[in-house]
Specification:
This protein has 2 domains: 30 residues; 129 residues, no CATH class. The protein is built from 4 helices and 8 strands. Strand 1 and strand 2 form a beta hairpin.
């Protein structure tokens, strides 16, 4: 091993630069609210659920920047909507290549954004989706005990997961009263 001063300085500079970059990223990274499912997980089923939600958070954290989502293949599905019979949902971007009938927390099918007053979209949730043609069971699909809802206009079973914006109606509620379409 070459331990020359210039080689050691180069390694030191690389380590410091890497540590600085990681610290800067960590300081700016959005943090999801810790939900009851993560705080009270004490059975193996609860632990599996906590791991699945943690995987969803890790998989979607980079999508707080909408350009990262579109660069990864997510496309605009619909603008922010506030359904009269349900409440606000947000704007949805879907990844067509992930609509394969498999629910994988590491590869969510859609992202839910809220339009910001500054014109920037804010990631508020994730939507898991299974096309009708890929689901042959009589009962709707489920994720962590929550049943998917039929979304006839898109031909899928869908389930919202409010990972990035607390929802007083529940983590898997169809709409979120804390989401606003007012900026759109």
């Amino acid at each position: 091993m070459d331990a020359s001063p210039s080689r050691l300085n180069a390694r030191f500079v690389a380590i410091v630069a890497t540590a600085s970059l990681l610290a800067a990223c960590a300081a700016e990274a959005p943090v999801a609210p810790a939900g009851p499912a993560l705080l009270a997980a004490n059975t193996s089923t609860e632990m599996e659920g906590a791991r699945a939600l943690a995987t969803l958070r890790r998989a979607t954290a980079r999508y707080h920047e909408l350009t990262a989502a579109t660069d990864d293949g997510f496309v605009f599905l619909h603008g922010c909507e506030s359904r009269p019979d349900e409440g606000p949902v947000g704007m949805v971007y879907v990844h067509p290549g992930r609509l394969d009938g498999v629910i994988d927390p590491a590869l969510p099918e859609a992202l839910v954004y809220e339009p910001g007053k500054d014109g920037r979209a804010r990631l508020v949730g994730v939507e898991l989706a299974i096309p009708y043609v890929a689901w042959t069971n009589a009962e709707p699909p489920e994720f962590l005990g929550a049943s998917f809802q039929p979304e006839d206009e898109f031909g899928v079973w869908g389930l919202h997961v409010w990972l990035w914006r607390h929802n007083p109606e529940g983590l898997f509620a169809e709409s979120n009263p804390r989401v606003s379409c007012a900026a759109e």
